[in-house]
Structure formats: structure tokens, C-alpha cells
From TrEMBL:
<feature type="domain" description="Peptidase M1 membrane alanine aminopeptidase">
    <location>
        <begin position="230"/>
        <end position="437"/>
    </location>
</feature>
<comment type="function">
    <text>Aminopeptidase N is involved in the degradation of intracellular peptides generated by protein breakdown during normal growth as well as in response to nutrient starvation.</text>
</comment>
<comment type="similarity">
    <text>Belongs to the peptidase M1 family.</text>
</comment>
<dbReference type="GO" id="GO:0008237">
    <property type="term" value="F:metallopeptidase activity"/>
</dbReference>
<protein>
    <recommendedName>
        <fullName>Aminopeptidase N</fullName>
        <ecNumber>3.4.11.2</ecNumber>
    </recommendedName>
</protein>
<dbReference type="Pfam" id="PF11940">
    <property type="entry name" value="DUF3458"/>
</dbReference>
<dbReference type="InterPro" id="IPR027268">
    <property type="entry name" value="Peptidase_M4/M1_CTD_sf"/>
</dbReference>
<keyword id="KW-0645">Protease</keyword>
<dbReference type="GO" id="GO:0008270">
    <property type="term" value="F:zinc ion binding"/>
</dbReference>
<dbReference type="InterPro" id="IPR035414">
    <property type="entry name" value="Peptidase_M1_pepN_Ig-like"/>
</dbReference>
<keyword id="KW-0031">Aminopeptidase</keyword>
<dbReference type="GO" id="GO:0006508">
    <property type="term" value="P:proteolysis"/>
</dbReference>
<dbReference type="InterPro" id="IPR038438">
    <property type="entry name" value="PepN_Ig-like_sf"/>
</dbReference>
<dbReference type="GO" id="GO:0016285">
    <property type="term" value="F:alanyl aminopeptidase activity"/>
</dbReference>
<dbReference type="InterPro" id="IPR045357">
    <property type="entry name" value="Aminopeptidase_N-like_N"/>
</dbReference>
<feature type="domain" description="Peptidase M1 alanyl aminopeptidase C-terminal">
    <location>
        <begin position="558"/>
        <end position="878"/>
    </location>
</feature>
<keyword id="KW-0479">Metal-binding</keyword>
Length: 878
């Protein structure tokens, strides 16, 4: 068991390891009820004196302990609940020990567990200590040799990290395999998989001629869904060679798909374990978004082989060192496979709708946190997504080529080491000569900075003054903030929409000034004076979202419409439309709160009509431009969140636009009806097609619903099926109910597709959704033991359906709280994620605050709860 009172781990307490593990041999005798693990470690003491050896373990017994072949006396060891301390060891020695595990009973899905009848492991962050006693910290790297033994009939496949060494038969229907990984690695990258699996195989020749055997292991019935993952893997391998000069380093690369998995996927050296959601796809079962997500996650885990495995983290406070960098790398990869601007829009939406709220709430923490109770709670949007933005800003500051040189230096300097974010920044500085001193604050200071910008044109002197003020709201433990180094990419557009040459005071008058600049905002307040500006310009600010900040500029509706039409930066064109929509929707929210009828703003209608008719613009960008800001993003703009008014305003606007532009939606929809192919262009066309259908259906008229119903019937693939279903979901009635029933009957046996069915219903805005979610928890297909199912039903309800989750009667909170408590006993990690839905209780009205706080108090007060859930709930109440 974990300690009774969870204790915080602090960065400032970091101390380097006192022992080195030179090699480890692990021997697994696999059995679902009783697995025996023998470990043999060769150890060297790194410090003078008699430093004891401290090994971590969780829920572990100790069956045997020998040092240099002899039993180690009881009085020279202390067995604590989570530590085994060995005293008076010789400076070099061999420690052998034995543990016994019950993989079948492991519902936490950390350590060794059984999924779909097969054995697998999850060791990041601290799962290895549930397998054997070991210095389970990322700065202890060692060379692993692993022997697996199991029943041949039920476990024909035996896998671990590295390269295969030996296999053979044993008496009693058993067999074994030995694997050796030549690259020293921390324990969190250890993995084993054993079971009745089949594989799709391919090969890849690296740039320098190494032949790599590629294998994707799945259950037999999924073998026809591996093509896309394999193609994605090969693309990622080639891309990393071409873009960053990174080559693969073993003879084999394996991916295993498992149905029960706490997160997306795991980068274990040479043996990635994946949530099957991020491997399995064919057009009949997976949507375009699924295909894109799979490509991205396959690439992400592959890229970790360098950014994470070859160079790893010194301690878990440095998590963003590998995750921020690897997310940045996978974002760039996806951008190169599709439309860069669309990818950027998606990433920024993701950041704003999930990371910004995190950064403004009680769980706010720096990209490099300073303390935690349970590290699993710090696999956050901040560490991943804001961390990627920090890496992106470094690239903006040092330039693309400089960034490449910096990354080369980082990998060369630190190959085989466990390092810190500081080492990363220093490599960037050393390779480019750029001073990133003040920039480092991005790693240390939590909260989303706010930029208030104003512009003033002076006709007499033909100058334009841009004044930038920055501030950052207080966050837990950080009441006062210092100014940050913010790269502000910008342009000035003249009245005809052309970008002006940007001559700043102090520029030499040699070459022609650029039409786009990155301003270094470093002070609390700064003014930039542009020369030679004859007429008042419209500024295009924060182009490409050059920093993760909230920007304010007093744009008029006309300015925004102008930018939507003329901005040469595709991201900012989209952003102008979003800002216009936010203004309009918030005005409607205020109207509703004042008891007035909302009205459709003519500027928004005109802008939508124009975009909808723009045949020159990529369909994917049109679709993004015509998507209204989400309820969560709108909520962020309000002092006190009014979930009902936001929901009603957004629904009203969708319906009004659906009605006002019905002919145009229909025409565009019909023109796109037959959009086939797997490339980004075809996907963009399908996205726009389904968006048109959704607007057509928004008013809920019979004819449109019938169209959606027939689209459901005729759909060629899962993208079309889901597009039709989604358009129907907010409209209770026979069309919706028949389609849902048909879908369930058809896909009952297919867990990943059935997840979509659960999620659709949990996301519905229609009345009675909470009751339906509650009924679905009793559905034979529902289980708290499967994280994907929990996320599909409960995660979607709690995080993706504000109007029902936050229902005034408190029933949404009750439902989710009860689920958290029940889930906590099975899987604390997933329970803690669900609990984050309650943490921002202070954002709501008094009545909701009261109910949410009571829910959190109930969670904290419960005896025997996990430290995971305790940390989330207690931080929320602090
Ligand atoms: N390192 C994984 C990734 O980002 C994340 C991960 C997978 C993870 N499974 C986990 C983190 C379990 C904590 C616990 O690719
Ligand atoms: Zn990762």
C-alpha cells in the first residue's frame, strides 16, 4: 500500500544516485495468477563511505534476497512499505532477489497486468517498482537482459526490449525467449509482452543502410487493421532522418496494441505498447480524425527513441524535456503531412480549450513543476502542450536552422545521459549564440501571460506606435510574476490589405525592411515605433500563434472582417473569424442573461457567407473558419461561467446560421457528397461536407434530419457514418433513435467502434442526457475496468458536455463523483483524470460552487482513497 498521508516530492530535494546498476538480468515465469520474477543486479557504489542501497517497490513481497550468492542477513536490510534498504554492502556486488506478482488481479494497469488474455507492462512513470525491487528513477540507466517463460499454447509470443537472443522449448508445454537491449535505459522504458498475438511485418532500411524488422502485434481478428499504422511508422522513420537527421538504432521495432491502457501509448525501447485506439484502423471502422491521430501517436512514440530514450530525463520534474520536445516534433511531422495552417489551428484549439483552463485553475503548474504527490497527475496539458509551445518559441527565436543545430548538439552532447530542461536550453544557446537567459522563465512560471496591445497612428510623422503590456495572473504558490520573453510575430496591413515594410526606429537604412517581424517582448511595457506608415494600418498580431498567451487588441468588427479577408497568415485569418464569433456570442450571452432575445449578428452572417463561397480556399480551412468557438473556450472569456447561456447562445447561432444560409450549406454539401481518398485534401472535403450537414440539421427541421438519416444509410465509411450521426444527436426523434440502434447492433462486438456510440450519447445536448449516461453505465458493454470505455462515456460527459455535467440540480456532479469513488478502487490514474472535471469549481455561480465543493470534500474525506485522486481533490480545495 501507499503511505497513509501522501507526501510531496520536491525538485529541490533532488540528489544524484549513490549506486550504479551495471547490468540487470530479469527472469519472468509468467502465469496470470502467480508470476515469479527473479532479478539479478550488478551494482557499483558511486560515493565514498557506506551509502546504503535504496530500492523502490510497491505492493511487493520479497521471496528471496542474496548478495554475491549468499543470503543477506535480516539485520542488514530494512523492508519498508515502499522501500527496501540494504546496509553495509560491498562497493561492488551482485544482488539477487525474487518477487511474486498477480497480473490478473492488477486493475490499475501499471506494472505487469493482463489485457485481453495477454500479458503486458506499463512502467512509466513508476510502474517498474510494482514488478521488482529496483532503483526506480529515470537517472539510473542500465543494460537489460530479459528471459521470459510461459505456456506455449496460450502465450506463443514472448517479447521484450532490444534484440532477440534465444528461444526454446521447455518441459510441460512451456517455452522461453531471451531478449537483450544493448542501450542502457531507465526502468520506466522496460517492457514485456506475452500472449496469443499475430503480427504484420514490414522492413525499413535506414539512411545508413541498417535493415530494420518492423512488426505490429495485435489479436488475430485485428490483423486487417494494421496497414495504416505501418505506413505511418515508415513515414515517421523517414521524416526523422530527413528533418532532424535521427536514425533508428536496433534491428527490430515492435508495436503492440492492447485494449486496456491508461494513456495513448508508451515508447518502451524497441517495444512500444499502444492503446489499440492508436493502432487499429480501416475506413469502415475509423474516422478521418482517427487516422490522423494514429499517424501522430505512432510518430510521437517513434520520435521518443531519440527525444526521451537515447537522451532521457534526470528526474520527473524534467518530464517536459522529453514530452514537450516530442510533441513539438510530432506536430511538425503532422504539419508536413497535411495543411500546416490547419494543423496549427487544431493545436491551438487544443491548447486553448484544455491547457489554458488548467493554467488558470488550482492544478496550474510550471512546465517544469516544483513539487508533486503523484507523478501520474503531471502528465498534463501544461507539460505536453505548453511544453511543445516553449520548444516552438525557441525555434522561433533561434530560427529553423539554428534550432536544427541546437538539437544536433543536444543529442550529441547528451546521448546516453539523463538530463534536465536546462541542458536542452544550453545546447540551443551554445549552438546558436542566442541568449535565452530570460526565456528560461517559461519553464518556471505557471499561468498564461496576457498581452494587451494598442496601436496609434500619427499621420504627421507617418509613424505607427505599437504598445505592448504584459502581465500574468497569480497561480498556486506564485502570486507575483515577472515579465517573460515573448516572441510576437506580426505584420501591418495597409488599407488595401498589403503587408507594409516594417522599419523600426534604429534599423539601418540599408536593405529593404521585412514585411513580417518577430518582436522581442521582454518588459512589462514596451513600445515599438514603425516608420514610414502613411495611412492607419491594421496590425496582424501573434501570427501563427507565436507564443501561448492571451492577446487583446481593440479590433472593431470591421478590422476583424478585413483581417479575415486579407491577412496573409492563414492562422491569423482563422483567428480573426474566431474573435469575431467570440464577440458576437458573448453579446448574445449577455442578452440572454438580461432576458432578451438573441439575434444573429449581420457581420457574422456576412463573413460566413463569404467564406462558404470561397472556392479558392482549401476545404479544410473553410471548415475551420466556419466552426464556432467551443463552449469551453467561451467559458474562459467569462468572469462567472454561465453554462446555460453559453450553450443557448451557441445553439441559437448555429441554428440561425443554418437557416439563414440554408441554400449555401446545401449546395456546398451536395458538391462535396462524393469525397473519397485518404489524403489531407479529401479529408478536408469530408470535414466540410459534414459541417454543412450539421448546420443544415441544426434548426431541427424534418427535411434536413431525413437527409442526415439517408446519409447515415448510404455512408461508405466511418467518417460519413459519424458525420451523419453527429448531425442527428441533438434532435431526439425516430431518425436519431433508429440510427443509434442500428449502429449499436452493427458494432456491438467492436470495442473501439462501440466507444464512439457511448461517446456520442454522452456528448448530446438533448434533454435527458444525464439519465441516459446513467442508464448506459448499466449497459452490458460498459465496464469501469476499461479506460477507453470510461473516457468515452464518463470522460465525454464530464469534460465535453458542460450544460449537462453542470446541470443546476447537481445530478451531473453526483453521477461523476460516484463514478470517481468507485473507479478509484480499481484504477487511481484514470479516476484522478476524471476528478479534474471538478477542480475549477470557483468559476461558477454560488449554487454550483457549493455542490462542486461538496463533491470534492466527499472525495477527500474518503478513507483509503488513492494519493492520485487525493492530490487532485485537495489541490482543488486549497
Ligand atoms: N510517455 C508516454 C507518451 O507520452 C505517456 C504514457 C503512456 C504514460 N502511458 C503512461 C504516462 C502511463 C504515465 C503513465 O508517449
Ligand atoms: Zn510522449
Amino acid at each position: 500500500m501507499k503511505d497513509a498521508t501522501p507526501r510531496a516530492i520536491r525538485l529541490e530535494d533532488y540528489a544524484p544516485p549513490q549506486w550504479r546498476v551495471d547490468t540487470v538480468h530479469l527472469d519472468f515465469d509468467l502465469d496470470p495468477e502467480r508470476t515469479r520474477v527473479r532479478s539479478r543486479m550488478e551494482l557499483t557504489r558511486l560515493v565514498d563511505g557506506s551509502a546504503p542501497l535504496v530500492l523502490n517497490g510497491q505492493d511487493l513481497g520479497l521471496e528471496g534476497l542474496q548478495v554475491d550468492g549468499r543470503d543477506w542477513p535480516e539485520d542488514r536490510r530494512s523492508l519498508e512499505p515502499e522501500r527496501l534498504v540494504l546496509h553495509d554492502l560491498p562497493a561492488t556486488c551482485v544482488v539477487e532477489l525474487e518477487t511474486v506478482l498477480e497480473p490478473r488481479a492488477n486493475t490499475a494497469l501499471e506494472g505487469l497486468y493482463v489485457s485481453g488474455g495477454n500479458f503486458c507492462t506499463q512502467c512509466e512513470a513508476e510502474g517498474f517498482r510494482r514488478i521488482t525491487w529496483f532503483p526506480d528513477r529515470p537517472d539510473v540507466l542500465t543494460v537489460y537482459t530479459v528471459r521470459l517463460e510461459a505456456d506455449r499454447a496460450t502465450c506463443p509470443v514472448l517479447l521484450s526490449n532490444g534484440n532477440p537472443v534465444e528461444t526454446g522449448d521447455l518441459p510441460g508445454g512451456r517455452h522461453y525467449a531471451v531478449w537483450h537491449d544493448p542501450f542502457p535505459k531507465p526502468s520506466y522504458l522496460f517492457a514485456l509482452v506475452a500472449g496469443d498475438l499475430v503480427c504484420q511485418q514490414d522492413r525499413f532500411t535506414t539512411r545508413s543502410g541498417r535493415e530494420v524488422d518492423l512488426r505490429i502485434y495485435v489479436q488475430r481478428h485485428n490483423l486487417d487493421r494494421c496497414d495504416h499504422a505501418m505506413v505511418s511508422l515508415k513515414k515517421a522513420m523517414r521524416w526523422d532522418e530527413e528533418t532532424f537527421g535521427r536514425e533508428y538504432d536496433l534491428d527490430i521495432y515492435m508495436i503492440v496494441a492492447v485494449d486496456d491502457f491508461n494513456m495513448g501509448a508508451m515508447e518502451n525501447k524497441g517495444l512500444n505498447v499502444f492503446n489499440s485506439k492508436y493502432v487499429l484502423a480501416r475506413p469502415e471502422t475509423a474516422t478521418d480524425d482517427d487516422f490522423v491521430a494514429i499517424e501522430g501517436v505512432i510518430a510521437h512514440e517513434y520520435f521518443h527513441n531519440w527525444s526521451g530514450n537515447r537522451v532521457t530525463c534526470r528526474d520527473w520534474f524534467q518530464l517536459s524535456l522529453k514530452e514537450g520536445l516530442t510533441v513539438f516534433r510530432d506536430q511538425e511531422f503532422t504539419a508536413d503531412q497535411s495543411l500546416r495552417a490547419v494543423k496549427r489551428i487544431h493545436d491551438v484549439q487544443h491548447l486553448r480549450s484544455l491547457q489554458f483552463p488548467e493554467d488558470a485553475g488550482p492544478m496550474a503548474h510550471p512546465v517544469r513543476p516544483r513539487s508533486y504527490i503523484e507523478i501520474n497527475n503531471f502528465y498534463t496539458m501544461t507539460v505536453y502542450e505548453k511544453g511543445a509551445e516553449v520548444v516552438r518559441m525557441i525555434q522561433t527565436l533561434v530560427g529553423r536552422e539554428g534550432f536544427r543545430r541546437g538539437l544536433d548538439l543536444y543529442f550529441q552532447r547528451h546521448d546516453g545521459q539523463a538530463v534536465t530542461t536546462e541542458d536542452f536550453v544550453r545546447a540551443m544557446e551554445d549552438a546558436t549564440g542566442r541568449d535565452l537567459g530570460p526565456f528560461r522563465l517559461w519553464y518556471e512560471q505557471a499561468g498564461t501571460p496576457r498581452l494587451e496591445v494598442d496601436g496609434h497612428h500619427d499621420a504627421a510623422t507617418a509613424t505607427y506606435r505599437l504598445t505592448v503590456r504584459q502581465s500574468c495572473p497569480p497561480t498556486p504558490d506564485q502570486p507575483e510574476k515577472r515579465p517573460m520573453h515573448i516572441p510576437l510575430r506580426m505584420a501591418l496591413l495597409d488599407p488595401s490589405g498589403r503587408p507594409l515594410p516594417l522599419r523600426l526606429h534604429g534599423d539601418g537604412d540599408g536593405e529593404a525592411p521585412p514585411v513580417e517581424r518577430v518582436l522581442d517582448v521582454t518588459e512589462a511595457e514596451q513600445t515599438f515605433v514603425f516608420q514610414g506608415v502613411e495611412a492607419p494600418p491594421v496590425p496582424s498580431l501573434l501570427r501563427g500563434f507565436s507564443a501561448p498567451v492571451k492577446l487583446q487588441f481593440p479590433y472593431t468588427h470591421e478590422d476583424l472582417a478585413f483581417l479575415m479577408a486579407h491577412d496573409g497568415d492563414d492562422f491569423n485569418r482563422w483567428e480573426a473569424g474566431q474573435q469575431l464569433a467570440v464577440k458576437v456570442l458573448l453579446a448574445q450571452v449577455r442578452a440572454l442573461q438580461a432576458g432578451e432575445e438573441p439575434r444573429l449578428d449581420p457581420a457574422l452572417e456576412a463573413a460566413f457567407a463569404r467564406v462558404l463561397e470561397d472556392e479558392a480556399l482549401d476545404a479544410a480551412l473553410v471548415a475551420e473558419a466556419l466552426t464556432l468557438p467551443g463552449e469551453g473556450y467561451l467559458a474562459e472569456q467569462m468572469e462567472v461561467v454561465d453554462v446555460d447561456a453559453i450553450h443557448r447562445a451557441r445553439r441559437f447561432t448555429r441554428q440561425a446560421l443554418g437557416r439563414a444560409l440554408a441554400g449555401r450549406w446545401r449546395a456546398r454539401h451536395d458538391a462535396l457528397a462524393d469525397s473519397r481518398g485518404g489524403d489531407a485534401v479529401a479529408m478536408g472535403r469530408r470535414r466540410l461536407r459534414d459541417l454543412c450537414l450539421a448546420y443544415l440539421c441544426a434548426p431541427g427541421e424534418k427535411e434536413a434530419l431525413a437527409l442526415a438519416r439517408s446519409r447515415y444509410e448510404q455512408a461508405q465509411d466511418m467518417t460519413g457514418t459519424m458525420g451523419a450521426l453527429r448531425a442527428l444527436m441533438d434532435h431526439p426523434g425516430p431518425e436519431r433513435d433508429e440510427a443509434l440502434a442500428d449502429f449499436e447492433a452493427r458494432w456491438r462486438q467492436d470495442p473501439l467502434v462501440l466507444d464512439k456510440w457511448f461517446a456520442l450519447q454522452a456528448a448530446s445536448g438533448a434533454p435527458g442526457t444525464r439519465e441516459r449516461v446513467e442508464a448506459l453505465m448499466a449497459h452490458p458493454g460498459f465496464s469501469l475496468r476499461n479506460p477507453n470505455r470510461v473516457r468515452a462515456l464518463l470522460g465525454t460527459f464530464a469534460m465535453g458536455n458542460p450544460v449537462h455535467f453542470h446541470a443546476a440540480d447537481g445530478e451531473g456532479y453526483r453521477l461523476v463523483t460516484e463514478a470517481i469513488l468507485e473507479l478509484d478502487a480499481l484504477n487511481p490514474q484514470v479516476a484522478a483524470r476524471l476528478a479534474t472535471s471538478l477542480v475549477r469549481w470557483r468559476r461558477f455561480d454560488a449554487a454550483r460552487q457549493e455542490r462542486m465543493r461538496a463533491a470534492l470534500e466527499r472525495i477527500v474525506a474518503r478513507p483509503g482513497g488513492s494519493p492520485d485522486v487525493y492530490e487532485v481533490a485537495s489541490r482543488a480545495l486549497a
